Amino acid sequence: MSPRGASDGGARAEVLARIRQANAAAARDPGRPQPGAPGRAEYRTAGERSRADLLDLLAGRLTDYKATVRRTTAAGLAAEVAAALADRGARRIVVPPGLGPAITAAAGAEFITDGRPEVLSPAALDACDGALTGAAVAIAETGTIVLDGSPDQGRRAITLVPDYHLCIVRAGQVVELVPEAVARLAPAADRPLTWISGPSATSDIELERVEGVHGPRTLVVILAED
Question: What confidence tens digit (pLDDT) does each residue in 61-88 have?
């Protein structure tokens, strides 16, 4: 047996040993894992970071994923939306029906409301320069934003067809861990959820990163602190 084969065999034996150990521990205690139990992992279900640390972590994760993060206060939100759209040169923006006019009042763009009076076709969505929505929850640990189809987020199509997505995340919507997000999303569990970690991208084609294949090529997040 080659040295590599010996190494592979040792790794396999170790993995199988750990599986047997975990199964044995589960048989002894089929309920909740006990602290310090051999072979049992401890999983956090609630975060421990401060609000400021959460926002910094989320911003850092989103930036790592090639999203652009703009930070502002609740009072400065409308002005920040206007600045983001101006920087993009976006003039025709689709918005969900429940976003609220106060956010778009200072933007100086043409806002087209999906569903008022009619649901926009894919071609009409593609003709827009981008989409502006709110969010349901954001997960700092993973840099993930979740949309649940609420009135300030709208149909999935409006954030998948246009090439630019400007998403508003409020500080109170940011949690640290995935289990916290899942708990918050429980009332919307029967609706389609969109989980976003940066702009749409794939590396399926010859392992080269290609953006904009399954959704917006550009994601800009406005993180609005209370």
Answer: 999 999 999 999 999 999 999 999 999 9
Paired residues of 65 in beta bridges: none
End-to-end CA distance of the chain: 64
Residue identified by tokens 């970071």 is 49
Distance of CA 216 to the CA centre of its chain: 13
pLDDT at 6 over 50: no
CB 197 within 8 A of CB 143: yes
- What is the per-residue burial (b if ≥16 Cβ within 10 Å, else e) of 19-51? eeeeeebeeeeeeeeeeeeebbeeeeeebebee
Residue 93 DSSP class: E
Residue type, 192: P
**CB 223 within 8 Å of CB 171:** yes
| Amino acid letter, residue 11 | A
Query: How confident is the model at residue 167, as a pLDDT?
Result: 97
Segment holding 122, helix H or strand E = helix 122-126
Rounded Cα distance, 70 and 78, in Å: 12
Task: Give, as one character, the DSSP assignment of residue 163.
Answer: S
